[in-house]
What does this fold into?
Amino acid sequence: MNEYSANLSVIVCAFFEFIIIAYIYGFNRFMEDIRMMLNRRSLEPYWFFTWCISGPIITLVKIEKQRFFLR
It folds into this structure.
C-alpha cells in the first residue's frame, strides 16, 4: 500500500462529501451560499466540474484502486 496517500476511510468520506454537497444539498444552493459570503458567484463552471463531475469520479477510481491493491 502507498504510504504517501490517504487511507481508504478518508477517501470514502471525501466521496460522500462530494455527493452530499453536489447532489443532496444542491449545487445551485451551494453556489448561492458562496455568492452570499463573497458577494459574487466566482468560477461557477470550474466548481461545477470539480464538485459534480471530476471529484466523484477521481475518488471512486482511487477507492477501487486501493481495494484492488489490498487483496
About this structure: DSSP finds two helices and no strands in the chain. The radius of gyration is 15 Å. The longest helix spans residues 8-38. The helical segments are 8-38, 44-70.
